[in-house]
């Protein structure tokens, strides 16, 4: 549950889970102000990057049929959840840090809805992302490691997309009850009404379901995939150019997949570890010094910013590591500046006739199907 000390902007405070911070006067006040300004700048940057980046990824895949393969549709699934979380959660965070107040200055009915949906959508986005990443990994496992095996029907998009959302909504539904508007001195504040024991059970469950178990599954699957792709031979391929192209394609796929997974867990794991330390009263055992408490205060702010940064990182990863995404983004948003498509002639041996085809990278590049032995690579595996 979101209750790192005075950190979420939702009025959560901890049910006794947070340590008793000591007031070191001007030093602590200066650090608090520095972190406030840092948080404002970070959240504004995340808001802009997430809104533009995720919208760009969604529009690019929707407007280019050749991009509408299973992996890219699941990436869109993550982009939609990240965009919703950005729009629901970040404005409230900015309001709290800018005004230095957690008091809600809107009608009570509006405050009640925002109080619940701000933390709820943040955690739903986390869940949708992790379930989508696991789905991509399992799909790639079947396509690359055991291509002759029939994929389970559950891996079809008509089942995958709804299941990621239904599971994410159900596993986080407790947020809709836990966060409630309470009046204190006639001022509206959003409070976590769960007991400490309830928080411990729920947060431990979420850590296991969304961090520990998926991380182990993803590491295992991508290790097997990497080993298989490293050993995979191309039927009929000869010469250094084919081998070099195979290694290049394999490397791009592995780097893209591992990078998405790595950044997700870098963004969320430290937050959850520190959260569990708070709710299990680790400070009562270790009793950190005042200087250590200042470090913990800084870390909790940084770790929370990282979780919100996860909303903006996937589009950046796709653009940086996927030449295919870059190419189609350019085609989607800069069509008027692109040169007209040229044609080339190809002589067919069967009919000895000349046929005109558009000149494109899809015609000239070694397809991913030649690398992996998978049929219809343009619509199944063109993620690089």
UniProtKB/TrEMBL annotation:
Which SUPFAM superfamilies does the record cross-reference, listed alphabetically? Family A G protein-coupled receptor-like
* Any one Gene Ontology molecular-function term assigned to this protein's record: G protein-coupled receptor activity
Q: Name one Pfam family in it.
A: 7tm_1
Residue ranges, annotated region (Disordered): 1-21
For this protein, the record's SMART domains field holds: 7TM_GPCR_Srsx (SM01381)
Which keywords belong to this entry?
G-protein coupled receptor, Membrane, Receptor, Transducer, Transmembrane, Transmembrane helix
CDD domains reported for this sequence: 7tm_classA_rhodopsin-like
Membrane topology term: Multi-pass membrane protein
Primary localisation category = membrane
Every G-protein coupled receptors family 1 profile domain range = 53-318
> Per the UniProt record, which residue ranges are transmembrane?
40-62, 74-94, 127-147, 159-178, 204-225, 253-280, 292-321
Q: Where in the cell is it found?
A: Membrane
Q: Which InterPro entries match?
A: GPCR_Rhodpsn, GPCR_Rhodpsn_7TM
Q: Gene Ontology terms, cellular component aspect?
A: plasma membrane
Q: Which family does it belong to?
A: Belongs to the G-protein coupled receptor 1 family.
State the name under which the record lists this protein: QRFP-like peptide receptor
Q: Gene for this protein?
A: LOC116286392
């Amino acid at each position: 549950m979101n209750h790192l000390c005075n950190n979420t902007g939702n009025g959560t405070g901890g049910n006794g889970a947070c340590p008793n911070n000591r007031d070191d006067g001007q030093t602590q006040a200066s650090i608090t102000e520095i972190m406030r300004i840092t948080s404002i700048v970070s959240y504004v940057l995340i808001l802009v990057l997430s809104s533009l980046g995720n919208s760009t990824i969604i529009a690019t895949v929707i407007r280019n049929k050749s991009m509408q393969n299973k992996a890219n549709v699941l990436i869109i699934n993550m982009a939609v959840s990240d965009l919703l979380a950005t729009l629901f959660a970040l404005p409230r965070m900015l309001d709290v840090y800018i005004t230095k107040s957690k008091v809600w200055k809107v009608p009570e009915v509006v405050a009640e809805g925002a109080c619940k949906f701000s933390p709820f959508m943040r955690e739903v986005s986390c869940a949708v992302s992790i379930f989508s990443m696991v789905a991509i990994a399992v799909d790639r496992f079947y396509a690359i490691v055991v291509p002759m095996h029939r994929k389970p029907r559950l891996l079809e998009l008509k089942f995958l997309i709804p299941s990621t959302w239904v599971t994410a909504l159900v596993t986080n539904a407790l947020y809709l009850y836990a966060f409630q508007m309470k009046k204190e001195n006639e001022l509206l504040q959003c409070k976590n009404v769960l007991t400490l024991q309830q928080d411990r059970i729920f947060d431990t469950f979420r850590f296991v379901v969304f961090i520990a178990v998926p991380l182990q599954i993803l590491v295992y699957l991508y290790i097997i995939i990497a080993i298989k792709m490293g050993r995979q031979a191309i039927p009929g391929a000869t010469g250094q150019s084919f081998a070099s192209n195979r290694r290049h394609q394999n490397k791009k796929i592995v780097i893209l997949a591992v990078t998405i997974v790595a950044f997700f867990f870098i963004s969320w794991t430290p937050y959850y570890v520190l959260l569990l330390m708070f709710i299990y009263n680790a400070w009562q055992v270790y009793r950190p010094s005042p200087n250590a408490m200042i470090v913990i205060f800084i870390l909790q702010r940084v770790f929370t910013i990282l979780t919100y940064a996860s909303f903006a990182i996937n589009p950046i990863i796709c653009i940086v590591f996927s030449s295919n995404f870059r190419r189609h983004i350019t085609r989607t948003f800069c069509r008027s500046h692109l040169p007209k498509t040229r044609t080339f002639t190809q002589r067919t041996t069967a009919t000895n006739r000349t046929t005109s085809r558009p000149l494109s990278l899809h015609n000239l590049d070694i397809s991913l199907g030649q690398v992996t032995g998978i049929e219809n690579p343009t619509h199944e595996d063109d993620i690089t």
